[in-house]
Amino acid sequence: MPELPEVEITRRGLAAHLPGRMVSDVIVRDRRLRLPVTADLAGKLIGDSLIGIDRRGKYLLLRFGRGSLLAHLGMSGNLRVLPADAPARKHDHIDILFGKLALRYSDPRRFGLMLWLQGDGSDHPLLAALGVEPLGDAFSADWLFQATRGRRCAIKLLLMDSHVVVGIGNIYASESLFRAGIRPRTAACRLTRAQCARLVPAVCDTLTDALAAGGSTLRDFHSAEGQSGCFQQQYFVYDRAGTACRVCDSPIRGLRLGQRSTYYCPRCQK
To answer: Where in the numbering of this chain does the Formamidopyrimidine-DNA glycosylase catalytic domain appear (predicted)?
Structure first.
């Protein structure tokens, strides 16, 4: 599933081409996404201009004069900017046309969504309960220390809880914990202030490095321009079980945590 860096890269790509343009047509080839695309989507969008594009966690909000279009990429989706006459492929479900350009939503598994919201959408149930942004000012060592008090779940699972902090999925939680020298099964409530002071910048640095590398492309992710990310070439632990740690040469270990594959170095992470 695309995580925060991949969604932010998509946002930046779309923002480079589409704001200020008016919607000329909407083509919905398949409404069967995680939530069905409403039949009146074209009526909501045609004739309105895109003002800007925001990101909240793993969601994108396309801001129009009449409201906002909420988009989520699901497990395998992507949004690309293409010529309006580019032939549609099998899993290309929605085109929003801006004159000679098309914003095309593709999703082989159809776990994503595209919903029309009135206003800015901040009170929508999918957005209202989201936690802090890890690249925002609110994400600090003091905040994390307080947020972990009384939480007995593994710290990796807390980092992946979107009600606590948004956008950190399996890949970047594993990589951040390696950089901070903390084992993923450590109970969140047992983190010390010193560990929180290491983990917050580790998360920020991991996400920032992933953004600089164009995100991670393991299967389906491509940017709005159709480019693959290469951050997977920099992984310290994720999906590297049995291979040598890049820092200490110890074999990377894998385990199941919260029904997700988890990776760590037994020597570098205590």
So the answer is: 2-112
